Amino acid sequence: MVTERRPRLLTLLRRAIRTDPDRVALTEAHTVIGETVVVKILDLALRIGESMFAVGASAHDVTFAIIRVAKVYGLSGVHVDVNFDAISVSYHRGEEDWPTTLVRVIRASSPDHAKLQRLQALLVDIIDGMDLDEARLAFRVIRRTPFLYRPIVVIFSRALLTVGVAILYGASPIIIGLSFLAALAVAFAQAGLARLQVPLFFSQITGGFIITAVTAIVSALGDAGIEPFVAVQPSIIVASGIVLMLSGLTVVGAAQDAIDGFALTAVGRILDLTMQTLGVVLGILIGLEFARLFGIGIPLPTSAIPFGAPVAQIGGAVIIAVAVALFNGAGARIMIVSAVLSTIAIFGYSSTLALGIQPGGASAIGALLASFIGIITARGVHVPSVAVTTAAIVPLVPGTAVFRGLLGVVDSDGTAEGMLDGIGPLVLAASIGIGLAAGASLGLYLGTPLRATLATVSRSRSRLRR
């Protein structure tokens, strides 16, 4: 009896520790689908993913959308590769057949949040059982839909953003008006360069130079005693322009791709972000050097320019969020959600700053609150989470710190002490930028599982009602 129990105990222990290869199926059953239909399914899934990526979706969302569309129509085990400028999808029906592989190059990438919202709605319809041919037709309609607003609306909405930044800092009416006019000149210049297909790097240099030139002229008029330019803060004009030209950068998308493990896409977006930022920096430095050649001095702020009163902060943040949503092609629903989230972000930033937390940490907390609440509420109101999160964190972009640092470097005359005085604000600006990216990405990361749980509960309730 004892000898019989030992083999049984050994068998039970072996089963508890090891897996049983005999229980694993050597083959997997696949639905037999013709090659023509396979190509149609892969083409639809790939085109939806390409369109989503081109208008601002993250690589993770694009991969999920392609795999989900293919699986709905019977293709499981699809391989997807998302790079910065190309997407490929492959499906192998069996060992006896050649794999079917499609590749699409992403030639142009520009935010269009209204189109992204429609693509996500189409994805929901496909999951709910939309026919393949009907889905292909619906996608063609979405793809051919033009940008929601005319170019002149986009230009004025970009100028409106600087009004929000100036109000955020509690600027005087003359500075608010000058910020709007300077930004309007930048927007028209960059729109003209875009039509001439000038690279965005040189367009950013042009914008930085124009903003700095306007600031230098205002400073010279103030020094000459000409009203109403006396006793104004011209540095707010440059700070507003910096926020304008950095507002379109994909900071959240780049950080999210890096966290999700899409290294090539993240590196591509980060490099693109870096080159655009360097373009702004070069444009400002060139403008400062020209101002110095003409004997025009711009006063260097001795400390960081604080935000204005709470009412001004909320009003400025709402204007900035609405302006960002406008020139990104968003509809009214996205604008409202973005305005609410920007208020939450600025409240979180100001509250934590009042507690003695450094600006980098405070900006991370503000972005975390906005992105976490945004990703949870985005599903309920049917808006893309990346759209509302991007618009919400723009008010926290460190425009004044960047300008203070660059102006300090130019005025340092090459001395070590002067260079350190200029590098300090630049380090502060970098810490705020990293805090924004980290906070927004962490909010999305923490909110995604909760959103999935809420979606599951919602589906279960709807099934019980049926």
Please characterize this protein's 3D structure.
- This protein is mostly helical and 466 residues long.
- It is built from 17 helices and three strands.
- It has a three-stranded antiparallel sheet, with helices on one face.
- Helix 4 (113-127) runs antiparallel to helix 5 (132-143).
- It is elongated.
What is the secondary structure topology, with strand pairs?
Elements lengths: L1 H16 L17 H20 L4 H14 L6 E4 L3 E6 L8 E6 L7 H15 L4 H12 L7 H18 L4 H23 L4 H24 L11 H12 L4 H10 L2 H31 L16 H18 L4 H23 L4 H23 L3 H9 L5 H12 L5 H50 L1
Antiparallel strand pairs: 1-2, 2-3
Helix pairs in contact: 2-3, 2-5, 4-5, 6-7, 6-9, 6-12, 7-8, 7-9, 8-9, 8-11, 9-16, 10-11, 10-17, 11-16, 12-13, 12-15, 13-14, 13-15, 14-15, 14-17, 16-17
Counting helices, strands and paired strands, the structural category is mainly alpha
Radius of gyration: 27 Å
- What is the number of E strands? 3
Taking the sheet with the most strands, its summary is: 3 strands, antiparallel
Q: Which stretches are poorly predicted, pLDDT < 50 over at least 5 residues?
A: none
Q: What is the H-and-E element order?
A: HHHEEEHHHHHHHHHHHHHH
N- and C-termini, Cα separation: 58 Å
**Shape descriptor:** elongated
The helix content, as a percent range, equals over 70%
Averaged pLDDT: 82
Query: How is the largest sheet built, in terms of strand order?
Result: 1-2-3
